[in-house]
Each structure stands twice: as structure tokens, then as C-alpha cells.
Amino acid sequence: MRVEIPLYTERFGSVRINDVQRILELDSGRRRDDEKEITTIHKIEKNEIEDVEDKLAIVVPVKEEKLKLLEGVLSGIPHDCVVIVVSNSQTNPINRFKMEVDTLARFHRFTRRKMLVIHQKDPGLALAFQENKYTGILDKKEKLVRDGKAEAMVVGILLAKMVGKEFVGFVDADNYIPGAVNEYVKNFAAGFCMAESSYVMVRNSWKYKPKIYNTGIYFKKWGRISEVTNRYLNLIISNYIGFETEVIKTANSGEHALTMKLAEILKYSSGFSVEPYELLYILEEFGGIKPTNYPEVIEDGVEIFQIETRNPHFHEDKGEDHLKKMLLESLSVVYYSELCNQTIKTLILNELVSQNILKKDTFPPQLPTMPPLRSINIQNFNEKLKEAKTFTMFE
Ligand code: GDP
Ligand code: CO
Fold first, then answer.
1. Which ligand approaches the C-alpha of residue 118 most closely?
2. Contact assessment for residue 276 and residue 226, using Cβ atoms and an 8 Å cutoff
3. What does the pLDDT look like over 250-289, one tens digit per residue?
């Protein structure tokens, strides 16, 4: 793969946020001895990408998606990545979850690839969390894992750690284009190849999110939600560094990846606020604003890459209410961040009111967060899950 080097990097304490990097070639061909290096371009060899794929788990959160889409997503993930499907689909009256497991079983019969699948509401899973005193993920009433995409991601990260992976990435189950999924994973791997630190996050930035209208297809550049969330995150950073910046372009990027070393020390915010919160938390914890609990990270630094995909992002349209919920949750974590000053808070309230998402003189909901996963004893967690037969492993 050929990717431009980051043309500009914003520093925030020990965090380095690289501006969006474009891809020149998805496939840069065979390595040749007489090759001339181009200093502004990274060439990442296939074998380097494959080395990362061996150590990479791809978590696919799924809730009531079409099985054809799920199967397409599976087909796009490179074979050597272990796939971890975390489902919150219904089991009753129709067992959609069983259909998903059957889809995986069938896929495994023909591909023999390694996959794990678990249901988010499995009582054995909740018990394993309870035993490890990791109750921030549980619903207080139900005593099961809460609903939410972030909750599924946290479960996925733990399973990735359980099977000894060094990297973990996330790919939504509602992607229409398997070739795009394949590219996302290659981009994650390319990001890790470029990194110097061991605390790394790679976020995909969409070149286009096309919309289909009666008049034809329109290659839209920005999703409506991410445009707004990006703006507020950039305001927060600008306010601290004293220079206006637009460096954040992937605030809501569901398709992203982390080194396990970074994944296990982050806090996660519930539901759809998870993606912007990851960025905020990294800035809060490692931005040099307060003393950190992780001096070793300050030493190494946190690197954030934003890689612009060549494939457009086509996914299921979940409608207006879904978008409103997503914006509310995203701006809520910005609002309650310790980095957010009164001026930005007022701007956020005005934004939500003007978009008819929040009533005047009310405040956004404060969402639950989940503490760093490092506190969980992974052997014990693994044993508990196995005892309760919570997950199915295909290998
Ligand atoms: P968007 O693409 O960001 O607009 O959000 P989606 O609604 O498409 O959700 C992203 C992914 O998370 C999809 O694959 C969903 O099926 C999945 N998802 C959403 N909510 C949940 C949940 O509560 N649990 C799990 N396991 N997956 C979820
Ligand atoms: Co989607």
C-alpha cells in the first residue's frame, strides 16, 4: 500500500494527532531491489501488513442486521485476522442470534477461519464481569450487560485479549461493500506499521459517504453527525493550544483500531458516544493537563492516525431518529468533558436546541462510562466464560 506521510501533526501534551493521510495505491505491488524511495510517501509492503493481520482481532458488533450484510462483512475481513462477533440481536420470539451463529458456522465450513461469537446478554458473560468486579458495564436492573455498541466493543476487546491478540479493530456489520471492509482492515494494519509508539489508534476517515437521491448518486464528503462532532472536538483542542485547528476529522468513526496496550487503559463511554469519547479521554488523560496514572504512556506518547479510505462508505440508513440520538450522545460526552469550558458548553446546548434534539433549558443526559479493562484478570475471565459456555469458537 502507498500512503502519504502525515503532512501535519497536532501535538497535545504527549498525544500526536496526525492529519488525514490519503492513500495513493491500495496495492503497491511487489518489492523491487532497485526501487527509489519517495520521501513524502510511505510504502508499506504486503508482508508487513500480513504480519499485523496475524496479530489483529476484528470485532464486529451486530444488532438486528441483515444476514447477507453480515456475511459480506465476514468475507471482506482478511483471513488471518480472528473475527469476534458480539451480538445484541433478539433471541425471542425469533432467534436472530441463532441465525447469525448459523451464518458463521456455514462460513467456517468453507473457509476454516478462526471466529468467536458471543451474545451481549448472555448471563454467563455478566457473571464473569461481576466476579471481576467490573460492574460498570452491567445494567443495574437487569444485571446483564447493558445495551449499546460500546458495551459490545468492550466485550470484543476482552475476547481479543483472551486469544492473545496485540491489536483490535472494529468493523460494523451493516457495511454493504465487502471490498471496503477489506480496505478498512488493511488501513488499520498500515497505521500500525507507520506507528512509532506502542499506544496507537487508527481511525478511518471516509472519502465519501454517498447518498442516493431520485436524481442519482451524490458523493457526499461528510456524514452529518461527524461534521458537527468534529467541530466541537476541534474547538476544545483549539481552545487549549491557542491556535485554531481542524485536525480532527474522524470523531464518529466506527471503523477504527487500537493497540491492545492502548485499548486496555482507555475508559469507554456507553452506546454511540464511544468514538468521540475515546479521543476526549486520550486528550484528558495524556494531554498533560493533569497528572496521569500512566507515566509509561507519557514517555512513549499516544499516536492517532486518520486514514482516508479509497472506497466510499455505504451502510444501512437507520433514519433520522438514529442520527439525532447519535448526535445527542456524541455532544453529551463533549459537554461533560473536563476539557469543555462554559463557552463551548453554551454552544453545544444551542446546537442541540436548534436541531430540535434538546428542549430549551434542559441538559444532555450524562452517559455511563466503563473503567479501563486492565483491572480484569483475563485468565479468570476466560475460565468463567468457558465454564458457562458463553461463546462459540470456530477454528
Ligand atoms: P452508525 O453506522 O454509526 O450509524 O450506527 P449503526 O446503527 O449502523 O451501528 C453500528 C454497528 O453497531 C452496527 O453493526 C450495529 O448492528 C451495531 N450495534 C448497534 N447497537 C448495538 C448494540 O447494542 N449491541 C451490539 N452488539 N451491536 C450494536
Ligand atoms: Co451503520
1. 1
2. no
3. 999 989 999 999 999 999 999 889 999 999 999 999 999 9
SS3 258: strand
Q: What is the pLDDT of residue 247?
A: 96
Query: How much is the pLDDT for 363?
Result: 96
β-pairing verdict for 211-213 and 369-370: unpaired
Tell me the CA end-to-end span of the chain in Å, nearest whole number.
29
pLDDT (mean) for 327-355: 96
Burial pattern 241-262, b for ≥16 Cβ within 10 A else e, equals eeeebebbbbbbbbbbbbbbbb
Give the C-alpha separation, 24 to 209, whole Å: 19
C-alpha span between 72 and 99 (Å, rounded): 15
- Catalogue all structural domains in the chain, each as residue range(s) with its CATH number: 2-226+249-317+372-394 (3.90.550.10)
Residue 81 has what DSSP assignment? Answer: S
Residue-averaged pLDDT of the chain: 94
Give the burial class of 33: count Cβ atoms within 10 A of its Cβ; 0-12 exposed, 13-18 middle, 19 or more buried.
exposed
Distance CA 358, CA 18 (A): 33
Which has the closest alpha carbon to 241: 206, 175, 288, 280? 288
Name the residue of 58, 59, 60, 63 whose CB sits within 8 Å of the most ligand 1 atoms, as the mutation to test its pocket: 63
Which residues are paired to 208 by β-bridges? none
Span 2-11, mean pLDDT? 94
Q: What does the pLDDT look like over 179-237, one tens digit per residue?
A: 999 999 999 999 999 999 999 999 999 877 777 777 787 777 767 788 999 999 999 99
Q: Is the peptide bond before 368 cis (omega within 30 degrees of 0)?
A: no
What is the sign of the dihedral through the CA atoms of 159, 162, 163 and 166?
Answer: positive
pLDDT tens-place string over residues 46-65: 999 999 999 999 999 999 99
Residues 6+ apart with CB under 8 A from 138: 126, 129, 130, 144, 145, 146
Pocket around ligand 1: residues whose beta carbon is below 6 Å from it? 61-63, 65, 86-88, 120, 147-149, 152, 172-174, 254, 315-316, 318
Distance 6 CA to ligand 1 centre (A): 30
